[in-house]
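Notebook entry, structure prediction.
Reason for the run: the old model in the group folder had no record of what sequence produced it. Starting over properly, with the input documented here first.
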Amino acid sequence: MSLFTIHKADWASSRDRSALGKVRSLVNIRELGRSFDAEWDAFDANAHHFIAIAATGAPVGCLRLRQDYVIDRLCVLPQWRHQGIATALIERVIATARLIRTQRLSVEVAKSSVPYFQRFGFLQEGLPFLVDGVGYRRLTLPLATLDGTLEPEAQEEQFLGRSHQPLRLVGPEAIAAAATRMARQAQSHLYLFAPSLDPALFDTSEFAEACAQLARIHTRRNHIFCIFHSTLEASKRPSPLLALARRLSSQVQIRNTSKQQLDRRETLLLADNCGYILRKDEEGYLAQADYNNPLTTRRYMEFFRHAWGQASPDPYSRLHHA
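New structure, fully documented this time:
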């Protein structure tokens, strides 16, 4: 599967607007024959835009969520189709809708695309209608019942590899509780990507002890892989995770982000190729999680492996810095 990442685009940015324009012009105008005036409408200025970026930095797909919570302008370049990009874009917009507490999403699609959107929980609404002679249906996704907001004490019912439910984690306590619970239940690996080693989330004695427990399962294998922009600040205070990495350097490895990844602000925890926690940029202590979503977790794993290959060893997790 080709490597790509999904980003929230800023319509006010000429760079992002140009990237969106390249994809939409190639697909909607050149391939599908939509007019220029119909493609670029008044919804663009205030919509949420999302863009898929290949490892080369080229834009390869996009999607728009309008202010009235209608999804449209879903485009993927022909050579990048059937690689999970459309699915990743739709999952990202659904996750965003949950975080901003939207009650429902809508989309209008050709009849042939209805089964695809039903996989995400969309329901048919109203009667079929025609667009340029093609049968269309309006679909809606009710989100109020799928919010899944969890407080720390409510996480006892979640089990790694078994509990498939999109969750909304609110506050550092809820995120930290989910991270520790996933780490305690993990049987093979943990992967953590974050701008910094946040003492409210991962640099806690509970999370470090859960990592130590995982590392003891098979002492000859690496189990915990972490990437941070820097651990300098963490090295200036008592840091349970840095202390663990110094003590169990064969099982707990920490690297620093490459220059190419320094603008990434999300926090991502992956457990056993099935569970994940994702905290996006500039959203405070809000995160989405799922204890059993292998498809999404594997997609995030591709990003992590790419970032790991570019990262460099962290100097402050070595024994001589203790």
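Summary: The first helix runs from residue 14 to 31.
The old model has been moved to the deprecated folder.
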